[in-house]
């Protein structure tokens, strides 16, 4: 009982009046027959009743939420409250009957308000862009509610005044009676308190009336401001739509232009004119002598000035491939790259195997994301059970493999004699891995523990890749790629993600290692944070932000890349990336610029000097550079990509069935295959079956670990099949690296050692 009394005191101290928007306090919640009623901290806000184990948990973990708009409120006895909504029921107990009545009053008021809000939303759901008339109706409706509330308060005031006057009359009559002196003093004190209470209630009513007058005064200004914002938004959307149409037409014209030139070699006059026209356009681009870059946090701000020498020239047309896996000899026209970077071996021109170019169109199923995510605020995304409606038919292992979309950058880097030029290409490769994410707002499937994915492109592009899910909580995947063209890449990535209510932060943890066989150069870098915006309202969009430091651990050369976060008020190009490549002494040699969703260029620095102070008081470094040269250009998306999850040409082939792959390969995952075929209901059922099977296996391992501990034995726990933990000699970190055996097992077609996870 002392604990209950304590809970009641806490609730009384923490909770405002039941009529306010938020009500908080301690209640006892029924858990089970073993533990009975447990003390929990409840918060009533915006028509939702949420509870936590402690007040401190409000910052990160919600134990449960019930929507009062559809809830039934019942009182069993003097102190009990029963809330039921759908299949969820809360049995609650207050410490006192008075406390119970406060909560019931607050719950009833919140329920009525939630029902009104729900009805208002349903009335407005068909009108995505309300007109000014609806704006006025909404404001007037709000004012009517305020008026009705004021009327209620006035009624309460009249009642208080009436009962207060009756109370004072009774007290005056008592004072007239012949009572002891002590009793008369107490009656007088009570009379004074009643008078003070009446004065306070009148002041409250007057304050509410003043508020209503103020709201009426400002309503016109609010209405004008709201209408202006809506017009600006409509204008902005129309402008963006026009720009998108222009962009598409220009992109189509660009794709058709090389074909027209190449099919008319016998028309030198036309070619000459076209070349001259292109050169004229490029010269106009260089009329802007100065290009400004954002300052990076750990280096001074800088400005690049393009040198205008007559001997310099730029290419007349793009030399970048227009399809996934473009021929490496498309890169051989770069002017300031060493000739060794542009050598092309004959084996790279072998004919390629025909692979699929489309997947079934995405079905148009509607689902309310907020209805699922509202109970998951602050939780780890990998622990939230999500239907396939929010997924794309690829696993996280396949998304990791998509980093190889622009593998030819590494093929070219492997042929470079200059480590500085090699660093520029490695930096471009690190940026290119984000280009596929710009439209990919769907969530990949969480891999099952022990799931693998192989991508064998040795015959076409000289490399083969293997991924394995090595841990489930936290989710971690190990990746190993080896290329016959002179490089090896490996990484272990752990995805940490948090849902913040309005946006979702995805933080890849772990380092990416890249080693070139001939030079022994080993590069190490880490990924930046990805953010998915507009989780609740509006169209989903993705941004990348943060810094990447690429280090060549053999030569100690570095590249500092900055991914600028999007800002509505910034004049910079959206998705901007800038960087500087420096030698071991910190001397800058190249400036990198571009966007992570389109292209990256490099400019060789020929002179640097200290300039004036910038707007933030920092001294800027002025770099005089040669004309920028393209390092990487994004391939255009396949036709009809918007109906195929915005997959790139490589992504369309990742789930294509192949013979001989391991029995744990993501291509064989049944729920993922069903989703790709458009059978989402079956995919959801299959996904639940696989997840429950994985939980059963985990419970069995935990039971085995407990038994081993009781018997004093050592329990090894789960060990990945194709990767093992080793300490990296360069960075000193311990991570999972490929231990071999997979490709040999594939040749033998012996998968007897693989677990049955599907």
Automatic annotation (TrEMBL):
<dbReference type="InterPro" id="IPR011993">
    <property type="entry name" value="PH-like_dom_sf"/>
</dbReference>
<feature type="coiled-coil region">
    <location>
        <begin position="226"/>
        <end position="253"/>
    </location>
</feature>
<feature type="compositionally biased region" description="Acidic residues">
    <location>
        <begin position="121"/>
        <end position="130"/>
    </location>
</feature>
<feature type="compositionally biased region" description="Acidic residues">
    <location>
        <begin position="283"/>
        <end position="297"/>
    </location>
</feature>
<keyword id="KW-0175">Coiled coil</keyword>
<keyword id="KW-0445">Lipid transport</keyword>
<dbReference type="GO" id="GO:0006869">
    <property type="term" value="P:lipid transport"/>
</dbReference>
<keyword id="KW-0472">Membrane</keyword>
<protein>
    <recommendedName>
        <fullName>Oxysterol-binding protein</fullName>
    </recommendedName>
</protein>
<feature type="compositionally biased region" description="Polar residues">
    <location>
        <begin position="317"/>
        <end position="331"/>
    </location>
</feature>
<keyword id="KW-0597">Phosphoprotein</keyword>
<dbReference type="GO" id="GO:0005829">
    <property type="term" value="C:cytosol"/>
</dbReference>
<dbReference type="InterPro" id="IPR001849">
    <property type="entry name" value="PH_domain"/>
</dbReference>
<dbReference type="GO" id="GO:0097038">
    <property type="term" value="C:perinuclear endoplasmic reticulum"/>
</dbReference>
<feature type="compositionally biased region" description="Polar residues">
    <location>
        <begin position="260"/>
        <end position="272"/>
    </location>
</feature>
<keyword id="KW-0446">Lipid-binding</keyword>
<dbReference type="GO" id="GO:0005886">
    <property type="term" value="C:plasma membrane"/>
</dbReference>
<dbReference type="GO" id="GO:0015485">
    <property type="term" value="F:cholesterol binding"/>
</dbReference>
<dbReference type="Pfam" id="PF01237">
    <property type="entry name" value="Oxysterol_BP"/>
</dbReference>
<feature type="region of interest" description="Disordered">
    <location>
        <begin position="118"/>
        <end position="138"/>
    </location>
</feature>
<keyword id="KW-0813">Transport</keyword>
<feature type="region of interest" description="Disordered">
    <location>
        <begin position="256"/>
        <end position="361"/>
    </location>
</feature>
<feature type="domain" description="PH">
    <location>
        <begin position="20"/>
        <end position="112"/>
    </location>
</feature>
<dbReference type="InterPro" id="IPR000648">
    <property type="entry name" value="Oxysterol-bd"/>
</dbReference>
<dbReference type="Pfam" id="PF00169">
    <property type="entry name" value="PH"/>
</dbReference>
<comment type="similarity">
    <text>Belongs to the OSBP family.</text>
</comment>
<dbReference type="InterPro" id="IPR037239">
    <property type="entry name" value="OSBP_sf"/>
</dbReference>
<dbReference type="InterPro" id="IPR018494">
    <property type="entry name" value="Oxysterol-bd_CS"/>
</dbReference>
